[in-house]
Write a structure and sequence with these properties.
- Helices cover 33% and strands 23% of the residues.
- The chain is of the alpha/beta class.
- It starts with a strand and ends in a 5-residue tail after the last helix.
């Protein structure tokens, strides 16, 4: 079984789009019918995120941490206890490609770091967009790490000790630990996610903060 973890804090405006994309990816023929379970971790949600997730057939797990590391770790542990062999992580403001799960497994690595692309640059100038794109390497063998586009085998995840309980850069910490252990990591742009360029993110020093730095460059 493949498990997908989506941490969410008050994401009613975007979670439906994310879950619909995950459902499409879960039905990809290359998976040959392997079950995919989608788990939304409701982190201190006060809106309709949970109701929407249930309507899309996703499992929900409630935590009250306001900490993405805690949320990802809790979701991973729940899916491991259900028998997952592979864990895939994305975000509630992101849309995975239809081959997202199948491509991760096809790479035959112990971990996969994919790329993200921004779908809407509203609120940014063309110069700011160009500055971002100039510093982003959408290529094979890149070295970008995104919690919105990350996969790992359960055995490697457990060997690395799982996600640390960090409110930001929990994805970087996990991948650095995997690398230190000699885990085989695929750095690929064939595993793709479209994400938002919103300027008020959910995690401090996350992707939205990185985009915000363009304004002060």
């Amino acid at each position: 079984m493949i498990g997908a973890v989506v941490p969410a804090h008050d994401e009613e405006a975007l979670i439906g789009r994310a879950l619909q994309a995950l459902r499409v990816a879960a039905a990809h023929p290359d998976l040959q019918g392997e079950e995919v379970r989608i788990l939304v971790v409701l982190d201190a949600c006060r809106d309709r995120t949970g109701d929407i997730a249930h309507a899309f057939g996703a499992q929900c797990l409630a935590v009250d941490a306001r900490n993405v590391g805690v949320a990802r770790a809790a979701g991973a542990q729940a899916l491991i206890e259900q028998g997952a062999r592979w864990l895939a992580f994305t975000d509630a403001d992101s849309v995975v490609a239809p081959c997202w799960f199948s491509r991760q497994l096809a790479l035959r690595s112990e971990a996969v770091c994919g790329v993200v692309e921004v779908d809407d640059w509203t609120g940014f100038t063309s110069e700011e967009r160009r500055a971002y794109e100039a510093g982003y390497f959408d290529t094979e063998d890149h070295r970008h790490i995104h919690g919105a586009n990350l996969g790992v085998s359960v055995s490697a995840y457990q060997q690395a000790g799982g996600f640390p309980t960090l409110c930001t850069r929990e994805d970087v910490a996990l991948v650095e630990r995997l690398h230190a252990l000699g885990v085989r990591i695929a750095w690929t742009n064939t595993v793709r996610v479209v994400t938002s360029a919103r300027q008020e993110g959910r995690a401090p020093d996350g992707f939205s903060t990185h985009l915000g730095r363009l304004r002060s460059a």
